Amino acid sequence: MNRIPALYAALLQSIQEVPPEFSLPLTIAGKLAGFITPQALKAIAHLPAVRITQTAVHIADPGTPRFELDPLLADISVILRDAGLLKTWRDELLTVYAEGEDLAKMERAAMRPLGLLTHAVHLNAWTPDLQLYIAKRAMTKATDPGMWDTLAGGLANGSEDLEHALLRETLEEAGLQENVLTCRTPLRTLLRMHRRLPEGYQVEDILVSDCILPPHATPCNMDGEVSEIRIVSQQQAVQMIADRQITLEAALVILEGMLSRTSETLLARFRAQPQNQGEPHDKQ
């Protein structure tokens, strides 16, 4: 367990990469929003709403209202798809943020070629003896198939706030209702990752809520995106991270939880809840 700080530091360093070569800063309606790849720029350069300078690419004039931005970004998504630049069309809208403002909605698959900010929420779930729940991603997943992940997690879509996103993912991926999550922390932002991907640039805030599940809780996947749910010791989780069996995002979430000792603080709260009085809590 002494290797956790060094392992965490190495992973932190690996997620801070500069934008892909020849990418340019991207503004939408006059606000800095992302970094567009050369391939994406070539595909949309002909659009009247796109203006290109030596130092940046600008989509839509400053102050363009949402009712104009939404269809414009929908058209851009289709153009990128038809150009073969999107990984997997999801038919799911995400919020487009620029300088902290919610500007519009856009197809999820188009976020990376434009280097737009996304938000990923994770439930880091513990047993009362401070072992970890982890979930194996189905082989049909477009990203990291067959790797282990936190019990529940995913991107917040454009129709929900972050708290609702976490509860939705927890229900879909672990079959757990909100009333089981009585001992958990509020969502907190761990970090913002910047990674070069084949399809573009990942700019993503990673948020986590740690939770101790009661002994009667039985996580069970509901959406077919998880092939197995397992309980592992903290030592096993660290070894799996070192062996790269756990996704990068999940590894950061899990290691940070161990370093911050959040679960130990939660355990005191869990034991104090009347419904948990008398439960065995032998710490591993």
From TrEMBL:
Alphabetically ordered keywords of this record:
Hydrolase
- Domain (Nudix hydrolase) spans 113-255
Question: At the top level of its lineage, which domain of life is listed?
Answer: Bacteria
List the source organism: Advenella mimigardefordensis (strain DSM 17166 / LMG 22922 / DPN7)
Mention one GO molecular function: hydrolase activity
Identification of the protein by name: Putative NUDIX hydrolase
InterPro entries for this protein: NUDIX_hydrolase-like_dom_sf (IPR015797), NUDIX_hydrolase_CS (IPR020084), NUDIX_hydrolase_dom (IPR000086)
Q: Return any one Pfam family short name.
A: NUDIX
| Cofactor(s) this protein cannot do without | Mg(2+)
